[in-house]
Design brief:
The chain is mainly α and about 140 residues long. The protein contains seven helices and no strands. Helix 3 packs antiparallel against helix 7 and helix 5 packs across helix 6.
Length: about 140
Amino acid sequence: MKPLHQERAATSTQQSDSTSGSGAPGATPPTKAAPADIGFVGLLRWAWRQLTTMRAALILLLMLALAIIPASLLPQRIQDPARVASFIEDNGQWGEVLDTFQLFDVHSSVWFASIYILLMVSLVGCILPGTAAPIGDI
């Protein structure tokens, strides 16, 4: 008679073999086929559908809130250019790195603008399809 743990191991092996589809012991389960090439237009459709979900809008809103943090912690060039210059001089290489990432010009930076433009497009894409039906009923 086999010990209990060996019987359980044999039973689980038999069950996994029977569910793999081939029934052969030790056979690997079939893999999924690669997705078909959707092309450039299909990729644009997929990106539009992803961008216009409420989840994407909420993620972009969170990113916008996180992107404002450096503007609160670091001096901004538009408000006090002398303070920014002294910050860069005092912190040397670290100040130059922060300036490279436009952290002293947060509200006019390229990365901040891209976040709020994507958020605007996402919200318009979420709202317009839902408002077409009620406007058509009027």
